[in-house]
Amino acid sequence: xxxxxTQLYKSSLVLLTDFYQLTMAYGYWKAGIHExxxxxxxxxxxxxxxxxxxxxxxxxxxxxxxxxxxxxxxDIAYLAGLKDSQGKTLFNADFLSYLQQLTFSxxxxxxxxxxxxxxxxxxxxxxxPLLQCQLLxxxxxxxxxxxxxxxxxxxxxxxxxxxxxxxxxxxxxxQGFDGALMAxxxxxxxxxxxxxxxxxxxxxxxPLRGTQSHSWVLCFxxxxxxxxxxxxxxxxxxIFLVDTYNSLEGVKNAIQIAxxxxxxxxxxxxxxxDSGDLAYLSQQARQLLDQAGYKEAIIVASxxxxxxxxxxxxxxxxxxxxxxxxxxxxxxYEQPALEGVYKLSAIKSPQGEWQNKLxxxxxxxxxxxxxxxxxxxxxxxxxxxxxxxxxxxDERSGISDNEALLIIDPSDPTKRRSIPAHTPHRDLLQxxxxxxxxxxxxxxxxxxxxxxxxxxxxxxxxxxxLLNPHFYPVGLEKNLYDxxxxxxxxxxxxxxxxx
Length: 499
Prior knowledge:
This protein has helices spanning 4-8, 19-31, 59-67, 73-80, 93-100, 130-135, 137-161, 176-190, 198-204, 214-218, 223-233, 247-260, 278-291, 307-315, 327-330, 445-456, 461-464, 478-497; strands at residues 37-44, 54-55, 107-111, 116-117, 124-129, 166-168, 194-195, 238-241, 268-273, 298-301, 322-325, 340-348, 354-356, 373-379, 387-394, 405-408, 416-419, 425-427, 429-434, 437-438, 474-477.
């Protein structure tokens, strides 16, 4: 696979981490537990945008990072120069030598990009030496959280447009060029038809779309002259931006140019509205275009669009065929961060026995889940039919297909669901790395986009709706729930005894 990270960044990325990951790694090494086998998992606590689901994205970029995971001589030299508050060297030479010789050797299991996922589920599971698992936390969260958020935002836009094309126009409003590139990629996975970001098109093979800006029109003496010049430059794909002066007059000018150049083989592809009352203007523009015989000409709309604005425009009968979305998509404007977390769930003792681990909190939603976690999706009629429930379980104990299954919501134990025996199902976590070696074939970005579309159709429309979506059952397998509750009670009892 082509590694876009090494194309963009010539320096090592292994130090793209939080400082305390390195200090903890040093502490593990000093304590002699750095090679102890551990299991961490990544999940998110609440679905973004007040919805029910998210679209998983970012795995391919995480794979790229792991394939070039190595402390370079330059990295080690930088770390060797770090001092503590007394001016003493922070990390000793033996530890730095260990880091320089470190080779990635973890097992990684993950849910594929384009998959529909829900809160509390393990999206990525990391199993391996404790020090390595710890060092992956920050970058894993950075990559998966952001791209999952943007892919979800794009999917919601497609829900609002009722499947009509959405173009990602966000480069100029993105948080930095890396944010723009990764957002363009994730937006495509979520369902966007194309991007305006040329570098994203080059790196990720995303289709490019764009028309012209108001500055183009302003560079000519008249709007007619501007349109005429553009039509001569791009006779086969001309979409005119009509709102520089007066939107409806702009539509009439677009029609005039189309008539002028018709004999030269010019065909009006469409017009774009970027301001004003988009519902009214699109209806009037459609009428003008149809009356002139340009019924196939499309109307593209932009101007601070978001899912709710688009839904409103659809309800008003707007005659818009293609939707250009920038700020609200590229920045995840309505929710700027996914509540993704990375938690230790099990570690091997010196005797080689697994010890379950749990992070306690006063809030149930923030209490982590112990074990070597996996997730299974059940379907109502056939495998990959309509999804009915997801269960999180401990891989060590597994789930019997021959027995009915009880799942319990970890945040609200009154929410329970019984799954009959022999219900069609699919395990969502896929093997990605084994002992540091890539064993997964990364699909094309187009395939991941198609997966998003296919998977969304496997959920009832009430679960996908933008406002007040219906609840989708996700819970812990009963034995895992009982284990978690037992550990919570033990931890609280131990905590109270120390007060």
